[in-house]
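Blackboard transcription, Thursday session:
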Amino acid sequence: MIPIACAIAVAATCVAMLLSLYRLLRGPDVVDRILALDTLVINAIALVVIAGIVYATRMYFEVALLFAMVGFLSTVALCKYLLRGNIIE
Amino acid sequence: MAFWIELIIAALIVIGALFLFVGSLALARLPDTMRRLHGPTKATTLGIGAMLIASMLFFLAAKGNPSVAEILISLFLFLTAPVSAHFVSKAHMLRSSAVRAQLSPTGRAVDWATFEAEPKEAGPGGAKEAGSINEPERA
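(Written on the board underneath:)
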């Protein structure tokens, strides 16, 4: 039952990544593109977690943690650049 | 592995994937940025949270010992999702003049924190102090 659930989850997450890729390419403002990048990173974390369940290994959790940190830092840095014109003042 | 544990794990995986899909659908379909911001934050907390609980239960049932890394990831995501949403909304407020027109007055001499460039009314030494609101204090 778990492999079927993982297949459904991979399909749904891939469709979600395509939808946020659409917003990333289309987005009328830069803020929409930043938000789409953030959502892409969240979906990538979900894919990594599903891969860890499918292959029954714990090796992927460091990958998910690093994805979470890099995604958060890039979102904050891009927004800070838009807000102040500078990242570290 | 017992049947009901497997059922719970599969249900949590599907629920998490559903929330991720709904969050990205909201990002793609909703009409303006403030409403688009609403969807992906739910995908972060509920979708990833349900998937990490499923993964924790899976490793507890398959290997016999629970892993702490999932708690670390979910704690980090739960702490950072409001911060990044706040930053995105502040950047949107700064860039959109339509949103800026909807803000209520602060009732003080200075504007909202994102926009406080110079004071509304200049004091006796107004010309000298005008640029100093935004700067850190220099003795």
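Lecturer's comment: Chain A touches chain B through 48 residues (CB under 8 Å).
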